[in-house]
């Protein structure tokens, strides 16, 4: 356990948040990275191990990943999500528990964890934007900008590839726009990708693909709940309407499962609504204290990677702790790694992608960047950190 650095200051200054109060993701036994290896091990594929003890093997497995559907958000909306609510108590083999997304709780990181079966420190997508140590530039992991050789950035095979090689009928059923993206290539490829425009088509085709093999693995995805949350917040009619829609999608797929199937409904992260006031939205681009000694700001509002000017690392850490007080967990890179925020293995090529300082939100606050990130800074709903609202994701099971 790493001892947080003691910051001395005036008696009325808030003390920094103790780092060991951050709830670290349940890597190895109950995180997104553990799901596919567990399912595929149950189908007899070599090179995969069953890590989530509560899951019973099935010949045909379908994973439906709903972007932005946190466990706490399902629990808060039984009227809009009656079908999902009916599955809550039977999750994780009847224990009624969520799994954890991983840190940071963001789409690119989580999809890479799902697809590779590895922790962020190993697959190497440890944030929304991170520094590329080769170029010194920020790279956006979701949009893959600037373009970087995908297989150098993430060299491991996906679990889909391992399943396909083991003779399991393997497919992804998602929007056609994702078919050829670098993120799909390094996180989700293996078997056959099928582009289908509507959610209903994806459900129907996923059921067909499940039935197409004696042993099958199908991954399907829906993105628009997350979009509504970012634009309008999770306390909006638009978001609730999307939740009602995904609830019906899940039921539609569940009712078409072929024999010997298991459907798992999960998500890449949850979400938190951030008030529009200066206390809740700290603007890095306008804050000379936070900017001092910082060469690059990466990550996103609730999970920041801070890259210091060489030699200024300790000053930046001290200053960020003083300014952010109890609102954020603020760790040095080595502290974050020792605490296991990015998993217990961190590859050498990934080390320099992680900030010299890592700041994870504890309260309903964000560090925006109004000049460099105008679009992201204007969002209502946000995610990224380790709080239950964004870290806990469902693992709901339906068996035929
Ligand atoms: Zn999102």
Got a strand count? 18
The total domain count is 2
What share of residues are in beta strands? 15-25%
Q: Estimate the global geometry from the Cα principal axes.
A: globular
Average pLDDT, to the nearest integer? Answer: 95
Q: Record the strand order, biggest sheet.
A: 6-5-7-1-8-18
Low-confidence stretches: 1-10
Give the biggest beta sheet: 6 strands, mixed
What structural category arises from helix and sheet content?
alpha/beta
What value does the Rg take, in angstroms? 21 Å
- How many helices? The count is 18
Bound molecules: zinc ion
- The name of the CATH architecture of the largest domain is 3-Layer(aba) Sandwich
Reported by name, the CATH topology of the largest domain is Alkaline Phosphatase, subunit A
């Amino acid at each position: 356990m790493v001892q947080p650095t003691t910051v001395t200051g005036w008696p009325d200054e808030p003390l920094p948040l103790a780092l060991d109060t951050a709830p670290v993701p349940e890597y190895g036994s109950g995180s997104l990275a553990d799901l596919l290896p567990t399912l595929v091990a149950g189908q007899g594929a070599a090179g995969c191990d069953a890590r989530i003890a509560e899951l019973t093997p099935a010949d045909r497995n379908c994973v439906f990943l709903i972007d932005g559907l946190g466990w706490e958000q399902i629990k808060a909306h039984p009227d809009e999500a009656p079908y999902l609510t009916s599955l809550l108590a039977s999750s994780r083999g009847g224990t009624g528990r969520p799994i954890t997304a991983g840190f940071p709780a963001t789409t690119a990181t989580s999809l890479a964890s799902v697809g590779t079966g590895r922790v962020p420190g190993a697959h190497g997508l440890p944030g929304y934007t991170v520094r590329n140590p080769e170029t010194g530039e920020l790279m956006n992991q979701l949009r893959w900008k600037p373009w970087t050789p995908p297989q150098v950035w993430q060299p491991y095979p996906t679990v889909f590839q391992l399943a396909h090689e083991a003779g399991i009928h393997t497919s992804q059923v998602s929007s056609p726009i994702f078919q050829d993206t670098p993120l799909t290539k390094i996180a989700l490829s293996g078997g056959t990708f099928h582009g289908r425009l509507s959610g209903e088509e994806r459900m129907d085709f996923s059921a067909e693909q499940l039935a197409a093999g004696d042993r099958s693995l199908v991954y399907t995805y829906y993105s628009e709940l997350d979009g509504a949350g970012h634009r309008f917040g999770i306390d909006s009619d638009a978001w609730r309407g999307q939740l009602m829609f995904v609830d019906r999608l899940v039921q539609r797929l569940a009712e078409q499962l072929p024999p010997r199937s298991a459907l798992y409904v999960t998500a890449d992260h949850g979400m938190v609504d951030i008030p529009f006031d200066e206390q809740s939205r700290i603007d890095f681009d306008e804050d000379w204290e936070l900017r001092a000694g910082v060469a690059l700001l990466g990550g996103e509002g609730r999970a920041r990677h801070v890259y210091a000017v060489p030699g200024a690392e300790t000053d930046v850490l001290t200053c960020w702790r003083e300014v952010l007080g109890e609102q954020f967990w603020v760790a040095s890179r080595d502290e974050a790694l020792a605490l296991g925020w990015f998993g217990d293995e961190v590859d050498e090529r990934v080390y320099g992608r992680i900030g010299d300082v890592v700041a994870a939100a504890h309260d309903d606050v964000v560090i925006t960047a109004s000049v460099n990130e105008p679009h992201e800074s204007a969002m209502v709903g946000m995610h990224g950190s380790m709080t239950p609202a964004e870290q806990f994701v469902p693992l709901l099971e339906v068996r035929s």
